């Protein structure tokens, strides 16, 4: 009797592991995607190159020549996917989807997060619309997190676009001052910034870490 229970337990565990493997994308049965130029044709849809801030989720298909099609965590609709090999990865979007570039900001990608909080989106919209160069400072790498510098890329998503696609600068703190960049030079260490008005800081602070 005990032997039967052991066998049953092993079968259940095996099924759970198989289910987990499919869920995590470790096992993929769909190898129907076709690479076409710099894009991919998959499920009757052509995907073309795009840019934006996103988080890779799991492998949902493969191309006939072995590239992975990876879902985007922020986008359950698969409007955007990632084409990935061992060394390279490219963000793609459905060819029939026109990425909104204006209108209401419905989400912001900042500090590695997609933020849909209405007050935060409204504050960021006002900040971006009002920004101008107030001061400059010197830094060898704006991406480095230090005690005196905590800046993160800021992307806007308009009209319910699943991910932030419009890069509008780096936002965060420099020497304790909340600011957003207005100019970052590729040939100089000088960065120009707009000091964010005090009225918006209490809205931004809960989302920085």
Annotation, overall tally of beta strands: 14
What composes the largest sheet? 7 strands, antiparallel
Distance between the termini: 55 Å
Structural class: alpha+beta
**How many H/I helices?**
3
Describe the strand arrangement of the main beta sheet, using strand numbers.
Answer: 1-2-3-7-6-5-4
User: Strand fraction band?
Assistant: 35-45%
Order of helices and strands: HEEEEEEEEEHEEEEEH
Q: Look at the structure and give the mean pLDDT.
A: 87
Regions with pLDDT < 50 over 5+ consecutive residues? 9-26
Written overview of the protein:
The radius of gyration is 22 Å and the shape is elongated. The N and C termini lie far apart (55 Å). It has a 7-stranded antiparallel sheet, with no helix packed on it. A 7-stranded antiparallel sheet has the order 9-8-11-12-13-14-10, covered by helices on one side. Mean pLDDT is 87; it is low at 9-26. The protein is an alpha+beta fold. The chain has helices spanning 2-24, 118-130, 198-204, and strands at residues 34-36, 39-42, 45-49, 56-62, 68-72, 80-84, 89-94, 105-110, 113-115, 135-138, 149-158, 166-174, 177-184, 190-195. A hairpin with a 7-residue loop joins β11 (149-158) and β12. It contains 3 helices and 14 strands.
